[in-house]
Amino acid sequence: MNRDAYRRILIFRVEESRLVLPRPHLPSLLFKHVSPIISCTFASNPCRIQFASQEIVVFRSDLIKKICRHSINAITVDSIPSRYARSVLSQAHLCPLPQHITPILPDFSHSLRLHPLPDLLITADRFETFNEKVVGSETIVSNPGSFARSNYTFHVYYPCQQRIEASQIPMTDD
Protein backbone atom coordinates (compact mmCIF):
# COMPACT_ATOMS: atom_id res chain seq x y z
CA MET A 1 0.00 0.00 0.00
CA ASN A 2 1.31 3.43 -0.92
CA ARG A 3 1.33 5.42 2.34
CA ASP A 4 1.91 8.73 0.51
CA ALA A 5 -1.57 8.45 -0.96
CA TYR A 6 -2.99 9.02 2.54
CA ARG A 7 -0.66 11.85 3.54
CA ARG A 8 -1.97 15.27 2.71
CA ILE A 9 -1.45 18.67 4.23
CA LEU A 10 -4.57 20.74 4.83
CA ILE A 11 -4.08 24.48 5.00
CA PHE A 12 -6.85 26.67 6.41
CA ARG A 13 -7.34 30.38 6.29
CA VAL A 14 -7.00 31.87 9.77
CA GLU A 15 -10.13 33.72 10.76
CA GLU A 16 -10.02 37.10 12.40
CA SER A 17 -12.71 37.88 14.96
CA ARG A 18 -14.20 40.80 13.02
CA LEU A 19 -14.75 38.88 9.79
CA VAL A 20 -17.89 37.08 8.74
CA LEU A 21 -18.26 33.31 8.59
CA PRO A 22 -17.81 30.99 6.76
CA ARG A 23 -14.42 31.81 5.32
CA PRO A 24 -13.82 30.87 1.68
CA HIS A 25 -10.92 28.71 0.61
CA LEU A 26 -7.64 30.31 -0.34
CA PRO A 27 -7.34 30.95 -4.09
CA SER A 28 -5.38 28.21 -5.82
CA LEU A 29 -3.63 30.82 -7.97
CA LEU A 30 -1.62 31.86 -4.90
CA PHE A 31 -0.24 28.37 -4.50
CA LYS A 32 0.16 27.07 -8.03
CA HIS A 33 3.92 26.67 -7.51
CA VAL A 34 3.55 24.89 -4.14
CA SER A 35 0.91 22.31 -5.05
CA PRO A 36 3.05 20.29 -7.49
CA ILE A 37 5.86 20.05 -4.93
CA ILE A 38 3.92 18.83 -1.89
CA SER A 39 0.63 17.03 -1.61
CA CYS A 40 -1.61 19.71 -0.14
CA THR A 41 -5.17 20.92 -0.22
CA PHE A 42 -6.13 24.51 0.49
CA ALA A 43 -9.47 24.04 2.22
CA SER A 44 -12.33 26.29 3.21
CA ASN A 45 -13.17 27.06 6.81
CA PRO A 46 -15.02 24.94 7.95
CA CYS A 47 -13.80 21.89 6.09
CA ARG A 48 -15.60 18.54 5.90
CA ILE A 49 -13.51 15.44 5.37
CA GLN A 50 -15.03 12.08 4.50
CA PHE A 51 -12.80 9.19 5.55
CA ALA A 52 -14.37 5.82 4.75
CA SER A 53 -17.70 5.91 6.61
CA GLN A 54 -16.67 8.69 9.00
CA GLU A 55 -17.18 12.41 8.66
CA ILE A 56 -14.65 14.80 10.17
CA VAL A 57 -15.34 18.53 10.45
CA VAL A 58 -12.45 20.93 11.00
CA PHE A 59 -13.29 24.47 12.07
CA ARG A 60 -10.58 27.09 12.73
CA SER A 61 -11.95 29.87 14.87
CA ASP A 62 -11.26 31.40 18.25
CA LEU A 63 -14.87 30.95 19.24
CA ILE A 64 -14.48 29.56 22.77
CA LYS A 65 -13.34 32.91 24.14
CA LYS A 66 -16.33 34.64 22.53
CA ILE A 67 -18.76 32.08 23.89
CA CYS A 68 -17.36 32.49 27.40
CA ARG A 69 -17.51 36.27 27.13
CA HIS A 70 -21.19 36.22 26.13
CA SER A 71 -22.29 33.42 28.45
CA ILE A 72 -25.21 34.08 30.78
CA ASN A 73 -24.09 31.61 33.46
CA ALA A 74 -20.78 31.72 35.27
CA ILE A 75 -18.31 29.28 33.75
CA THR A 76 -15.30 27.73 35.43
CA VAL A 77 -12.19 26.94 33.39
CA ASP A 78 -12.69 23.21 34.02
CA SER A 79 -16.24 23.26 32.62
CA ILE A 80 -15.46 25.18 29.42
CA PRO A 81 -14.70 22.12 27.21
CA SER A 82 -17.87 20.24 28.17
CA ARG A 83 -20.10 23.33 27.94
CA TYR A 84 -18.64 24.29 24.57
CA ALA A 85 -19.12 20.77 23.20
CA ARG A 86 -22.70 20.58 24.49
CA SER A 87 -23.57 24.00 23.05
CA VAL A 88 -22.23 23.27 19.59
CA LEU A 89 -23.66 19.74 19.36
CA SER A 90 -27.06 20.51 20.87
CA GLN A 91 -27.57 23.41 18.45
CA ALA A 92 -25.96 21.45 15.59
CA HIS A 93 -24.23 24.62 14.45
CA LEU A 94 -20.55 25.56 14.51
CA CYS A 95 -21.28 29.11 15.63
CA PRO A 96 -24.02 29.12 18.29
CA LEU A 97 -23.85 32.89 18.78
CA PRO A 98 -26.22 35.64 17.61
CA GLN A 99 -25.60 37.52 14.35
CA HIS A 100 -24.56 40.76 16.07
CA ILE A 101 -21.72 38.94 17.88
CA THR A 102 -20.48 36.73 15.04
CA PRO A 103 -21.85 37.71 11.63
CA ILE A 104 -22.66 34.85 9.27
CA LEU A 105 -23.29 35.17 5.56
CA PRO A 106 -26.93 34.09 5.13
CA ASP A 107 -26.32 32.40 1.79
CA PHE A 108 -23.64 30.17 3.34
CA SER A 109 -25.05 29.59 6.82
CA HIS A 110 -25.84 25.99 5.84
CA SER A 111 -22.09 25.22 5.68
CA LEU A 112 -21.86 25.84 9.45
CA ARG A 113 -24.62 23.37 10.27
CA LEU A 114 -23.73 20.03 11.80
CA HIS A 115 -26.62 17.91 10.64
CA PRO A 116 -26.10 14.98 10.77
CA LEU A 117 -23.55 15.24 13.55
CA PRO A 118 -20.02 14.27 12.42
CA ASP A 119 -17.96 11.52 14.03
CA LEU A 120 -15.22 14.01 14.90
CA LEU A 121 -15.38 17.77 15.29
CA ILE A 122 -12.00 19.48 15.46
CA THR A 123 -12.22 23.04 16.72
CA ALA A 124 -8.82 24.51 16.06
CA ASP A 125 -8.98 27.16 18.78
CA ARG A 126 -6.30 28.93 20.82
CA PHE A 127 -7.89 27.61 24.00
CA GLU A 128 -6.11 24.78 25.84
CA THR A 129 -6.21 21.28 24.43
CA PHE A 130 -9.19 19.03 25.21
CA ASN A 131 -11.23 16.04 24.03
CA GLU A 132 -14.91 15.79 24.92
CA LYS A 133 -17.57 13.24 24.18
CA VAL A 134 -21.03 14.51 25.06
CA VAL A 135 -23.40 12.03 26.70
CA GLY A 136 -26.02 10.91 24.18
CA SER A 137 -23.85 11.72 21.17
CA GLU A 138 -21.28 9.68 19.30
CA THR A 139 -19.40 12.82 18.25
CA ILE A 140 -15.96 13.52 19.68
CA VAL A 141 -15.19 17.24 20.05
CA SER A 142 -11.47 17.87 20.02
CA ASN A 143 -9.38 20.99 20.32
CA PRO A 144 -5.67 20.44 19.71
CA GLY A 145 -4.91 23.93 21.05
CA SER A 146 -2.15 26.20 19.87
CA PHE A 147 0.77 24.20 18.50
CA ALA A 148 3.41 26.76 19.45
CA ARG A 149 1.98 27.62 22.89
CA SER A 150 1.50 24.03 24.01
CA ASN A 151 5.10 22.82 23.64
CA TYR A 152 4.45 21.44 20.15
CA THR A 153 1.66 19.06 21.11
CA PHE A 154 -0.89 17.84 18.59
CA HIS A 155 -3.63 15.23 18.33
CA VAL A 156 -3.54 12.00 16.35
CA TYR A 157 -6.89 10.51 15.39
CA TYR A 158 -7.28 6.76 14.86
CA PRO A 159 -10.44 6.38 12.75
CA CYS A 160 -10.74 2.59 13.16
CA GLN A 161 -10.85 2.90 16.94
CA GLN A 162 -12.47 6.37 17.00
CA ARG A 163 -9.79 7.42 19.46
CA ILE A 164 -7.68 10.55 19.84
CA GLU A 165 -4.18 10.45 21.24
CA ALA A 166 -2.13 13.44 22.34
CA SER A 167 1.37 13.54 20.84
CA GLN A 168 4.29 15.90 21.15
CA ILE A 169 7.41 16.71 19.19
CA PRO A 170 10.31 16.09 21.56
CA MET A 171 12.49 19.07 22.40
CA THR A 172 16.18 18.47 21.81
CA ASP A 173 18.96 20.41 23.46
CA ASP A 174 21.65 21.02 20.87
Provide structural commentary.
- The protein has 174 residues and is an alpha/beta fold.
- It has one domain: Purple Acid Phosphatase, chain A, domain 2.
- Helices cover 11% and strands 25% of the residues.
- It contains two helices and nine strands.
- It has helices at 63-69, 80-91, and strands at 9-11, 40-42, 47-51, 54-60, 120-124, 130-133, 140-143, 153-158, 163-168.
- Strands 3-4-5-7-6 form a five-stranded mixed sheet, with helices on one face.
- The longest helix has 12 residues, at 80-91.
- It is globular.
- The termini are far apart.
- The model has no long low-confidence stretch (mean pLDDT 81).
Q: Keywords, please?
A:
single chain, 25% strand, alpha/beta, DNA polymerase II subunit 2, 174 residues, two-stranded parallel sheet, 5-stranded mixed β-sheet, DNA replication, Purple Acid Phosphatase, chain A, domain 2
